[in-house]
Prior knowledge:
This protein is of the alpha/beta class. The chain has a single domain, classed as Ribokinase (UDP-N-acetylmuramoyl-L-alanine:D-glutamate ligase, 3-Layer(aba) Sandwich), CATH 3.40.1190. The protein has helices at 22-32, 47-58, 122-133, 154-163, 171-181, 190-198, 238-252, 256-271, 283-290; strands spanning 2-5, 9-13, 16-20, 37-44, 66-69, 75-81, 87-91, 111-114, 140-144, 166-170, 202-206, 212-216, 221-224. The strands form two sheets. Strands 5-4-1-8-9-10-11-12-13 form a nine-stranded mixed β-sheet, with helices on both faces. Strand 9 (140-144), helix 4 and strand 10 form a beta-alpha-beta unit. The mean pLDDT is 93.
Amino acid sequence: MITAIGEALVDEFPDSRRVGGAPLNFAIHVQHLGCPVRFVTRLGDDESGRLVLETMKRHGLDTSGVQIDAQRPTGTVRVKLSENGTPAYDIVADAAYDAIAPPKGIEDSRLVYYGTLAQRTEQGFEGIQQTLRMLPPAVVRFMDINLRPGNYQRRTVEASLSQSELLKLSQEELNTLGAMLFPRTPARDLPQALMAHFDIDEVLLTAGAEGAAWMTRQGDADRVPAAPAPRIVDTVGAGDAFAAVWVVGWLKGVPAKRRLAAAAAFAAHICSLPGALPAEFDCYRSLSQMLGD
């Protein structure tokens, strides 16, 4: 069982509304790749919340981990796309996912996925940190950091990194962490600095057109180029797709090079679609084959 905890929200594009949130996108991909997954979030008792629940059910996700907030609305993000499909986010404050309560019964998880957005408030921070602290040592903690400008604090970042065994981040996020935490460390040494300082076992680094890399504290490493995309509609959710494939491959014991290649291919596919989730599910069959199923 994999557990993902964090935000579920509605992305408002200029021409449409789409259900999103990195933890939800991750959970949906994992579900389609055949791994049991539990998703923990908090929604408002409103139209957007019902849209999220409908989307979860359509993708086969169990909704028992969803908390309903009678006061706060479901999270909303206003998304603007540049000419090359790169998104800019206006993340609305005071959302239901800012108050996720520590869930019960997740101690049976093999891996727990979390990020920083749902920890942007004191209540959210305490809820997720308490959840991580109560996990047995055998449960792997996977952090997809997702630094959104104006929605994280140094204390949140450091506490979350300290809990992490596996860390996924983008090159831009690595640069941000370097400036924040290790300003005198050369860029090439930042992954090892993070692993040494926070006791992290592995780092997964995505770098857009430059491909992706994997590194361990013991010095193991591998890298793949970016997979070709037939066309780029937008890059929303590409990192979430990458993380999901990597985690499923990691749990199945797939060699790192093959994990990276499969994750890069799926991220490129997501970039060729509008939004973070495919409308059709055939892509997961070929992806499972790449992972050895």
